[in-house]
């Protein structure tokens, strides 16, 4: 006799009342058991989000490749990271944005390409380099899904974003147009605010560690934003790559418990440390005046804070339509990190 507790794949026959001898067979396998294991190439794999994508791809059982660029020079940290990926089971592929043929050869070896090169100016803004990757993917002709480097605010909603920060969104839209004009299957991931950059500093520009004394609230501190643990960003992203529901769509990461205002983030921290912080407020006009005195790179970052915490650009719309989905609803098996738990690491 079969033990139903150990027999994970059970076959059922459903006979429907109809004139023909029609039946449907289906299994109750878990989604993870039904998923196709793909060959996944991650470009920018040693970066802030890229290293997490490599880890998530390996953990979800995909044959994972990481592009190794010859211009790595003597960056020993990146070399050692690449070697650690190799020890974990990833494959390293040589390739360069300056060598079109090498990109084509790398792309031909895989099913899915995920690009995670930097799109922030204080590191290096390289978004338009992806146009070379789009050309290589188009020429190779074998890619089932391409996920370009986005992972932040949905650029299609940021046409009225403040200058000079708008350049990041404009460049991403240039890449999107190239992808769609080339007929490349895609998924765009809008991950909103990385917790490390925003929650760690209680949503204050220039801070990545929470103070136990004081905090500056932007505006009245009540504009809602969305915060996601970077490991969760990677886990959700990898989930999408073989899901037909995400094909040619934008996927928003909006974990319900992490839709919070700056003031609510501060309150979570105050609860953990058992005391109230001294609070001051920076009104919109003061913030805009402060930006004027900064250099270009810093202005880009600060205008993103303005769009998020003064204009409320992340949570001021509903997710609906045929070309959008929400990840935490689609993948309830991912137990995402709530921001109260995220903040505990700073105690």
Give a brief description.
It contains 13 helices and 15 strands. With 347 residues, the chain is of the alpha/beta class.
Average pLDDT value? 90
The helix/strand series, from N terminus to C terminus, equals EEHEHEHEHEHEHEEHEEHEEHEHHEHH
Overall SS class: alpha/beta
Rg from Cα: 22 Å
Number of helices: 13
Strand content: 15-25%
Strand order of the largest sheet: 5-4-3-6-7
Largest sheet: 5 strands, parallel
Euclidean distance between termini CA atoms: 54 Å
Query: Helicity, in percent?
Result: 25-40%
Shape: globular
Please identify the oligomeric state.
Answer: single chain
Question: Count the strands?
Answer: 15
Which segments are poorly predicted (pLDDT under 50) over 5 or more consecutive residues? 1-32
Keywords: NADP, Oxidoreductase
Family: Belongs to the NmrA-type oxidoreductase family. Isoflavone reductase subfamily.
EC number: 1.23.1.1, 1.23.1.2
Pfam families: NmrA
Q: What keywords describe this structure?
A:
347 residues, alpha/beta, five-stranded parallel β-sheet, disordered N terminus
What would you say this structure looks like, in words?
The chain is built from 13 helices and 15 strands. With 347 residues, it is an alpha/beta fold. Strands 5-4-3-6-7 form a 5-stranded parallel beta sheet, sandwiched between helices. Strands 8-12-15 form a 3-stranded parallel beta sheet. Mean pLDDT is 90; it is low at 1-32.
């Amino acid at each position: 006799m079969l033990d139903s507790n150990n027999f994970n794949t059970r076959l059922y026959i459903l006979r429907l009342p109809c004139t023909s001898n029609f039946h449907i067979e289906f299994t109750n396998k878990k989604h993870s058991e039904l998923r196709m294991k793909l060959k996944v190439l991650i470009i920018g794999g040693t970066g802030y989000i890229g290293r997490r994508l490599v880890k998530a791809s390996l953990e979800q059982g995909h044959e994972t490749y990481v592009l190794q660029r010859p211009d790595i020079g003597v960056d020993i940290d990146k070399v050692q990271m690449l070697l650690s990926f190799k020890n974990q089971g990833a494959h390293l592929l040589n390739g360069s944005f300056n060598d079109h043929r090498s990109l084509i050869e790398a792309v031909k070896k895989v099913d899915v390409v995920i690009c995670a090169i930097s799109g922030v100016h204080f590191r290096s803004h390289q978004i338009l380099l992806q146009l070379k990757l789009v050309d290589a993917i188009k020429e190779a002709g074998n890619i089932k899904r391409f996920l370009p480097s986005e992972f932040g605010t949905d650029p299609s909603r940021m046409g009225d974003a403040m200058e000079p920060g708008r350049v990041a969104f404009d460049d991403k839209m240039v890449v999107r147009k190239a992808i769609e004009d080339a007929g490349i299957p895609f998924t765009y991931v809008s991950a909103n605010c990385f917790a490390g950059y925003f929650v760690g500093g209680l949503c204050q520009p220039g801070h990545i560690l929470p103070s136990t004394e004081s905090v500056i609230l932007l505006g009245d501190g009540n504009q809602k934003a969305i915060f996601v643990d970077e490991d969760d960003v990677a886990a959700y992203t990898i989930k999408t790559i073989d899901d037909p529901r995400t094909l040619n769509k934008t996927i928003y990461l909006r974990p319900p418990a992490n839709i919070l205002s700056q003031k609510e983030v501060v309150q979570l921290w105050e609860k953990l440390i058992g005391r109230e912080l001294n609070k001051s407020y920076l009104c919109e006009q003061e913030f805009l005046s402060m930006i004027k005195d900064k250099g270009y790179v810093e202005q880009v970052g600060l205008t993103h804070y303005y769009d998020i915490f003064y204009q409320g650009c992340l949570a001021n719309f509903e997710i609906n339509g045929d070309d959008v989905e929400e990840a935490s609803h689609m993948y309830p098996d991912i137990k995402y990190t709530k921001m109260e738990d995220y903040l505990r690491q700073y105690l």
